[in-house]
Every structure is written in C-alpha cells, then in structure tokens.
Amino acid sequence: MGMDTKYYERIAEEVAEKEIAEEEEAKRREEEKQRELIANRTMKSPKKLSGTQAGQRIKPATKSRSPGLAAYRPLKPTSPAVLTLKRPLNGVKWAYIPKPVRELQPPPVIASWDPPSANDVAVFRPGGPSTSKPQSATKDWYKGILTDEELDALEHPKPKVRNSNYTNAANKRKHHHASGDYNTSIYLLYAQFRCPSKNGQFEDPSQCDKFYDCVDGVATEKLCPDGLVFDPLNRKTNKCDQPFNVDCGDRIELQPPKSNHLCPRRNGYFAHQDESVCNIFYNCIEGEANQIVCPPGLHFDEYSGTCVWPDSAGRTNCGEPEDSKLMLFMVMLILCIFQTMTISLILQ
C-alpha cells in the first residue's frame, strides 16, 4: 500500500510540473506575439501631428484570455489512499486528497482480574473478615465460627424430597448397598427427577419400567404394567411395550414381579414351564395365560417373542411331544396321498 501511495504522489507531482511548464511556455509565446504585433503597428509615415504625437507607438493590447487560477500543486496524502484525477476546471487539473482517518485506540484497562489460587482463600474470624493470606488454607476454615449442628449440616447435606415415594426409593438403594460410599449427588439423582422445559413422558435413568409424566414442570412417577417396559422413542400415548421391542440400555432394574403358576409376570410372552416343551408358549394379559402352539418344526424364542427355527432359538433339551409327532405324521401322509393322485392323473 505504501508503494502505491508514493507512485501516485510522483504522478501528481509530474502532472503539476508539466502544467506549470506548459503555462510558462504559453506565456512566453504570448509575449513574443505581442512584440510582433507592436512592431508591425509602428507608424512608418505619420501624418502631420503635433510634436508630442509624432512618432508615437501604439501601446500593446491586453491579453484576450484571462490567466485563470494559479497552478495547483497537490499536497501529500495524510493516509494511504488512491489519488483520483478529475476533468480540468479552468485550465487546472485538480487532484483529490482524502482527509486523514483517525485511528481508534483500544479502551484503557480499568482493572484486571486473576483467578484465585489455593492460597488466596480469606481467613474468617469472629472479629470480621481478614484479607491476610493464611499459611495453609484448607476447607476447614469455617470451623470455630459454626456450631456442631451447622457444621454437620454443611458437611453432610440432606437431600430435599417432595413425597414419600422418592424417599422410599432412596432408602431402598441405600440399604441395598451395605458399603454406603455413595455421595449426596447420587442420592439426589435417585431421590428426585427434574422435568425438562416441555411437557411429556420421560424415562427413569435406572429402572426400565418406570417413567415420569411431566406437566408444567411437575413430575409424577408412574410404572408400566408388570411385564412391560417404557419406550421413550414410542410416539404413542401409551409408551409401555414388550421387552423384546425396547432397548433398555443401562436401565436394568425392574419392579418386583407379580407371578402365578403360568405367568412369571402379569403381561408378556413366556415359554412353557417344562423346558422340554419348546413349541408351546403363553401370552399373559393381566395374569391370564393364553396357550399358543408354534407351527410344526418351529420353537418359541423368548428374546423375540415369536416362533423361529430351532437353530435361531438355540434352546436345548427340547423333546418332541406326542401331539407334534402325530401332526407331523398326518402332514407327511397328506403329502404322499397328494403326490400319488398327481402321478395317476398324469399317467391317464
């Protein structure tokens, strides 16, 4: 940018010098022309005039053209800028010189702040705060000015709960783990649930069949029917579904089962109580068992809730019941009869 400025300055100076030289040359030519006119207008044969008028020369005529404005020499620019030459005005070429631009200075630093270190903790005494640095600052600075009850409440805060259900859940987990090494944050996580900004149903972080119904920021704890689990990705109003349709992830806890002799839980698809019977299962609805028999050659798969091929089910100790053997025999017999009739029709 500096080289461009010097280049345009040099051009402006050359233009100004050229204009001055042209004006001086024009002035010199004009003077020579006037001398020639004066010499040609001298009266060689004057008339009879008085003695004072005899041989008088005519005065030179004034210039018919006004000299115009004085030559303008452009100044040096005060800031880097491009000089733009405009059209001549009264015989003078003007050059635009931009005004200087005031540089903005950064605001002065009024105050600076450095993050406190471990040794910059103020010492509090009954007489008032002190700004002197202690020799060794520890977290026990509040000892000596608080009572034992206040000190215990500060070091071991109790979680704030809203109802007895949260308290019971926290107490169950507290007694379940004999070590008791859980901190306050985990108790608060188990004790209360904070609703997001929007209303809706949200899963519990640890129990797969528990969810919270949030309305205007107030959470209501709810449970799916026994045997079903909560699916947060389900767009239906009832988000409780079969376990083989939901990915619980880390939510491995479930409510206590309500079982009977055929249904381990009140809802769901369950295998036959006899492990050797692999082709029969039960569909339990609110504790009522409905027996379902798989098609011949298929076994019930507990992980998918459907009848699949034995290799996919992966069940062991499966025996073929008498009903299945009889049904398979009848199917084979029907196939043989059908093939025999087809062959006889072709031969005819």
* Rg, Cα atoms, Å: 54 Å
| Strand order, largest beta sheet | 3-4-5
* Largest sheet: number of strands, sense, barrel closure: 3 strands, antiparallel
Helix/strand order, N-terminal first: HEEHHHEEEEEEEEEEHH
Question: Tally the helices: what do you get?
Answer: 6
Shape: elongated
- End-to-end Cα distance: 107 Å
Helix-residue proportion = 25-40%
Structural class call reads alpha+beta
Total beta-strand segments: 12
Rounded mean pLDDT is 71
Content of β-strand? 5-15%
- The unreliable regions are 64-69, 77-86, 121-139, 160-190
Please provide a written account of the structure.
- The protein has 348 residues and is α+β, with helices and mostly antiparallel strands.
- It contains six helices and twelve strands.
- The strands form five sheets. A three-stranded antiparallel sheet has the order 3-4-5, with no helix packed on it. It has a three-stranded antiparallel sheet with strand order 8-9-10, with no helix packed on it.
- The longest helix is centred in the N-terminal third of the chain and has 39 residues.
- It is elongated and about 155 Å long.
- Pfam families: CBM_14.
